[in-house]
Amino acid sequence: MGTCLVTLAVALTFSSVGQASTSIKSEEKDYLDENFQRWWETEFVWAFADLPTKGSVPKHRVPYSGHDYPDLAGGTIEVLRKYDRAFHDGRLLATAHEHTDTTSQKERTVVRGRIFGILRIPTERTPGWHGHCNGWAAAAIRHAEPRNRVTRNGVVFTPADIKGLLAEIYMYNHSEFLGGVDPAINPGTFHAVIANWIGRGSHPVAMDTALDREVFNYPIYAYAASSAKRPGNTVEVKMNIAYTLSTKREFDQAQHLHRVKYFHYTLQLDDQGKITDGSYFPDSDRVDMLWVPLHAAASGQEGNEKGNPHIDVAEVLSMWRESVPEEIRNQWLNIDPLPEDAVSDDVDDNMEEDVPGTPAEAEDNLENVTSEETAGS
């Protein structure tokens, strides 16, 4: 698994965080309704029978496997040295900021030492799970994998370099919260978000898989579910999700690595068939929260207040655009796009035909999900 430090700017706080769930929190439900309406201009669907049982992003839209840049390995410091050569005449401004950022957060731990026998010595060190997995996950959701080299001020940036810069500019960038106010996201919230965003919208979402203070983020791009009615207004659901894994280093063209998570839960429905609550079976996986990245804001400004101030975000995005063919960028549908990256009206109209439902070209993405649909049962 990749390591990372969470940097999501969650837009709301609930007093019930950390308590056992009894139902989907009204504040969380209202927030999901409002942000779906804002981004999709249509209602968030809570009626279980109206939600797709499977869904995927289009084949060309599957998030790429990128590196998570652990802090203990220096984060993105290597590519920032190249960036400083190109844009700061070799002065290590962005590099120095990254060094400070990746070494500033430490925690008390105990190591073994041998002084007259074995001793346990308390020390302060950077946690091994700190890194840029949220930056990579956000970049892979919002951007097609870079393909071509680009040159700036005589310095050549490879596709791997551009991916590293993308991971850096999204490190502290704001994101849209999609649920997870309890230690593990309520199964009802989980089911509704996955089915609305991926099933209806064909848009990937990110998940934090760790339930404690550690954070591990990955992009989800497909799901498949089966269900059975149970006594009362109860439905038993088995769902698999497919998600992209990170790589041990950055590659110019990475092999797509993925895994499947299995979820097994019941959903409580009201008299109108809308999801109101859920509970997990012991054999089910669980995740902490779901989110989607917003557009890359300028470093140090609203939306990216803690971003590296020595990186020109617009320049990084320009390098990415030059590295990716226009025909790919023109069909890369994102919520909250920058004007330069908004899909054309013709493409947008075609996308609308795929909502709700699963795009025909995305069926291949479901093979590794449906093949394990009853896993864990």
Task: Tell me the domain tally.
Answer: 1
Main beta sheet:
8 strands, antiparallel
* Binned strand content: 15-25%
- End-to-end separation: 25 Å
Radius of gyration from the alpha-carbon trace, in angstroms: 21 Å
Shape, per Cα inertia axes: elongated
Enumerate how many helices there are, as a single number. 10
Structural class category: alpha+beta
Number of E-state strands: 12
Q: Share of helix among residues?
A: 25-40%
Average pLDDT over all residues:
82
Low-confidence stretches: 5-21, 346-363, 371-377
Order of helices and strands: HEHHEEHEEHEHEEEEEEHHHH
Brief summary:
With 377 residues, the protein is α+β, with helices and mostly antiparallel strands. Helices cover 26% and strands 21% of the residues.
Commentary on this structure:
The structure is a single chain. The chain has 377 residues and is α+β, with helices and mostly antiparallel strands. The protein has one domain (1-10, 29-103, 133-377). The chain has ten helices and twelve strands. It has helices spanning 26-40, 77-87, 93-103, 133-142, 159-169, 187-200, 313-323, 326-329, 345-352, 367-370; strands spanning 54-56, 107-114, 118-125, 150-152, 155-157, 175-177, 205-208, 217-230, 234-244, 258-269, 275-280, 289-293. The strands form three sheets. Strands 1, 6, 7, 8, 9, 10, 11 and 12 form an eight-stranded antiparallel sheet that branches. The chain has a two-stranded antiparallel ribbon with strand order 2-3.
